[in-house]
Amino acid sequence: MSTRRTLWQTLRRANDVLHPHPWRLTHVSSRQTPLLPRLYNTLTVNAADLSFGQPVHETHPHLLQPGELTPGITAQEYADRRTNLAAKLPDKAIAIIAASDIQFRTGSVFYEFHQDPDFLYLTGFNEPEALAIIGKDSTGKDHTFHLFVREKDPKAEIWDGARSGTNAARDVFNADETGDITKLNQLLPNILGEASEVYTDITSPNANQSVLQRFLYGQSRKSTTFAELLKNSKVNRLRPVMNDLRAFKSAAEIELMRKAGKASGRAHTDAMRKTWTREKELDTYIRYRFAANGCDTLAFEPVVAGGKNALSIHYIRNDDVLHDDEFALVDGGGKYGGYIADITRTWPVNGKFSDAQRDLYEAVLKVQRTLISLCRGSASVSLDKLHSIAEEQLSNELRQIGFDMSFKAIESLFPHHLSHYIGMDVHDTVGYSRKVLLQEGHCITIEPGIYVPDDERWPKHFRNMGIRIEDSVSIQEDTPFVLTTEAVKEVVDIEALRA
User: What is the pLDDT of residues 127-170, one digit of tens each?
Assistant: First the structure.
C-alpha cells in the first residue's frame, strides 16, 4: 500500500490516535447546509483548509453564501429537487443520471468543462466522471441519493486540480451513500437488483474514454457494462420527467437569471455606445463585458453579424467588416450560477437610423412589445400561440411599409420560431411541448425578427437587412418579468448613446 495519504486520511488517522471511538464527519440530517467538516472533541478541521473540486462557502465566501452549494442555490433546494423527482417515480424505481465527461479538442487539450444540466440540477456537483442514483426512501415521502465520484488522488490532482472525493460527496453534497466511480461495476448491481424500474437517458454510445464512459457505453472489455447490468430491468426515459421539473423555475433560479440578464444587458448597451468597424472586435468586446459585468462564462457562442450576414440566423464566423450604412445584429448572453440570459439587439453601425432602418426596426419592436405583454399566466397562451400572433402582427406591420405579404411571405421573412424555453440551457428542457399554456415559473425568450433577402420581391431599400429583437422573460401570473431590461432597444435610446 502506498504511504501517500490524502488530508482526509491523515485526519482520520490522527483522530483515531487521539480518540478511540470511530471517526466520522459531522452530518447535517436536515440537508439544509453544506458541512463545515470537523472531527469530534478537540481536533477541529476548517473546510477552508481542505481542497474541493469546486467552490464551497468555506473556501470561496466571495462566491457562495452559507448554505449554498452553487451560487444562489442552497443544499436544501437541491434536496427538494431530488425529493420532487423521487415523488414522480413508481415505488422502488430509481433514476440514474451521469455527469458530463471532459471533451478534448485534440490529444490532452480540453474544452471548458460543461456539466450535464440534469445532473447539476439534482446534485449541485460540478465535476466530471460522476453518477447519481435517486429513488424514493422507505417512507415514500423523501428520497434516497447515491453519488459515485472520483476519489481523491494527489498525483492526478497535481495536473487536473482538486477533486472533492467520496467524503465530500456525503458530507458536503449530502449523498446517503457514496463510492469510488472506478468501482461502479461492483457497486451498481445490488442497487439495480432492488429497483422495480430504471429511469435514465444513458442510451447512446459515446467516444469518450473515461472510466465512467467506458462502463456506461460498453467500451470496457474486462468487466460487465452498464447495458448488460440493465438487461433485466424495465428501462424508461428520464427526459420527460426532468422536463416537467425543470420547466418551472424557483424564485432562486429566476433571481440567477435576472443577474445574468442584468450583466448581459449592460454589455449590449455598452457595445452600442461605441463605433465598430469589424465584427471580430465587437465580438471580443461583448465577451469581455459579459465577464466584466459579473457573468461566469458565455451562455452560447455569440452572433455578431453586420449587414446581410444577419440573414443567417446562427451566423457565428464573426469575421467580416461592419459598414456605416448597415445594421449590426448581436445575439449573445452570459451565464451566472449555471443559468443563462439570451438577448439580441440590432442597431445602426453609425449610431443613427436611416428612414428605412427605422421603419423596419419599429415594425419589429412594436410586435415584440405586444408579445411581451402577453407573457403572463392569466393570458392563457402557449409558445405556439404567441408565434401565430407574431406572424399575424408582423405581416400587418410589413404590409403597411410596402411589403407584399401574399403567398405566406411571412414564412420567408420570419423563418424561425418566436420563442424557446430558457434556464440552465439556452434551449432549455428540450422536448418540452410548445403547446403547453404558459404558467408562472416558465422562462422563455421573445424574439421576433425580419430577414429581407436581396430579392426583387421585396422593397429595394429594405433588402439585406436583418433585424431581431430578443429579451428573456419570466412568466408571472398577472404581469411579465423582463429579465434583460438593461439592454436598451428604443430608437431614441439607441441613438442617444452616441449623440
Answer: 999 999 999 887 888 899 999 999 999 999 999 999 999 999 99
Tell me the percentage of the chain whose pLDDT exceeds 90: 78
- β-strand partners of 298: 334
- Per-residue pLDDT reduced to its tens digit, 246-284: 999 999 999 999 999 999 999 999 999 999 999 999 999
| Cell 433560479, located at residue | 253
Check residue 355 and report its DSSP letter: H
**Torsion angle of C-alpha atoms 252, 258, 264, 265, degrees rounded to 10:** 180
Q: Measure the CA–CA gap between 367 and 409, rounded to whole angstroms.
A: 17
Model pLDDT for residues 131-140, shown as the tens digit of each residue: 999 998 878 8
Question: What's the CA gap between 332 and 491, in Å, rounded?
Answer: 20
Q: In the 3-class helix/strand/coil scheme, how is 377-436 assigned residue by residue?
A: HHHCCCHHHHHHHHHHHHHHHHHHCCCCCCCCHHHHHCCCCCCCECCCCCCCCCCCCCCC
Helix axes 279-292, 251-272, angle to 10 degrees: 140
Output the CA–CA distances (angstroms, integers) from residue 17 to 3, 43, 74, in the order listed.
18, 11, 36
Task: Give the cell for residue 171.
Answer: 458530507
Alpha carbon distance 182, 185 (integer Å): 8
pLDDT at 75 over 90: yes
Q: Give the phi and the psi of residue 134 in degrees, each rounded to 5.
A: -125, 135
Q: pLDDT tens across 360-402, in order?
A: 999 999 999 999 999 999 999 999 999 999 999 999 999 999 9
Neighbours of 156 (CB within 10 A): 12
Q: Which residues pair with 149 in a beta bridge?
A: 180
**3-state secondary structure at position 349:** coil
429: left (phi over 0), alpha (psi -120 to 50) or beta: left
Closest C-alpha to 128, from 143, 149, 144: 149
